[in-house]
């Protein structure tokens, strides 16, 4: 994490604390050779929808996202009973 954070704060080292979220996001969404995917994919079983992929126009990803959101709310209603 220190290595990633150093790259983000090279221009403003006094503001390192404002870049922590970026370093964490980079670590969680970056591809890791040892596990063959990103840590986020391992946990959530899908790629995180970060700003870098929002405008790619991937219809299948959009459909999967809608499906997962609908399933989440369906399960939420069942858990409340």
Automatic annotation (TrEMBL):
InterPro entries: RNaseH_sf
MF terms in GO: nucleic acid binding
Protein name, as recorded: Uncharacterized protein
Native source organism of the sequence: Zancudomyces culisetae (Gut fungus)
